[in-house]
TrEMBL record:
<dbReference type="Pfam" id="PF14599">
    <property type="entry name" value="zinc_ribbon_6"/>
</dbReference>
<keyword id="KW-0863">Zinc-finger</keyword>
<keyword id="KW-0862">Zinc</keyword>
<dbReference type="GO" id="GO:0008270">
    <property type="term" value="F:zinc ion binding"/>
</dbReference>
<dbReference type="InterPro" id="IPR013083">
    <property type="entry name" value="Znf_RING/FYVE/PHD"/>
</dbReference>
<protein>
    <recommendedName>
        <fullName>RING-type domain-containing protein</fullName>
    </recommendedName>
</protein>
<feature type="domain" description="RING-type">
    <location>
        <begin position="5"/>
        <end position="48"/>
    </location>
</feature>
<dbReference type="InterPro" id="IPR001841">
    <property type="entry name" value="Znf_RING"/>
</dbReference>
<dbReference type="InterPro" id="IPR039512">
    <property type="entry name" value="RCHY1_zinc-ribbon"/>
</dbReference>
<keyword id="KW-0479">Metal-binding</keyword>
<dbReference type="Pfam" id="PF13639">
    <property type="entry name" value="zf-RING_2"/>
</dbReference>
Length: 114
C-alpha cells in the first residue's frame, strides 16, 4: 500500500510505528496529528470528519458557548449547518463561536445557508 500523509505529503509507511489511524479510517503521521492538535485542528484533512472521540472537546465548547452571550443583533438569527461527522443538516440558533449538530452533538459543522 503506497499512501502519502495528507498533512506533510511524505510517504506514510516508512515506519509503521509513526502512523496513526483516524476514526474515519484515514492514516496520518503521529507527529502530524500532534501538530494539528496543537493548532486546534480536529478534522481529518481528507474527509473533514473528527479525528478522534471529541466528546470532551465538545463539552468544553458547550461551556464556552454558555459563557459567551450573543450580541443583540444575533439573538434571533438562525442558520442551516451541515455536520462533517454524521452528514446531517440542522437548523440551529447562530452562535459566533460554533454551531452544534442536533443529531450527533458535534461542533464539527459548517454553515450552509444563513
Ligand atoms: Zn505527515
Ligand atoms: Zn478521513
Ligand atoms: Zn452530526
Amino acid at each position: 500500500m503506497h499512501q502519502d500523509c495528507p498533512v506533510c505529503f511524505e510517504y506514510l509507511f516508512e515506519s509503521v510505528n509513526d502512523v496513526s489511524v483516524l476514526h474515519c479510517g484515514h492514516t496520518i503521521h503521529k507527529s502530524c496529528l500532534n501538530e494539528m492538535r496543537e493548532h486546534f485542528q480536529y478534522a481529518c484533512p481528507l474527509c473533514s470528519k473528527s479525528v478522534c472521540d471529541m466528546s470532551k472537546v465538545w463539552e468544553k465548547i458547550d461551556l464556552e458557548l454558555a459563557a459567551t452571550p450573543m450580541p443583540e443583533p444575533y439573538l434571533n438569527k438562525t442558520v442551516w449547518i451541515l455536520c462533517n461527522d454524521c452528514g446531517e443538516n440542522s437548523h440551529v440558533q447562530f452562535h459566533l463561536v460554533a454551531q452544534k449538530c442536533l443529531n450527533c452533538k458535534s461542533y464539527n459543522t459548517r454553515q450552509t445557508r444563513g
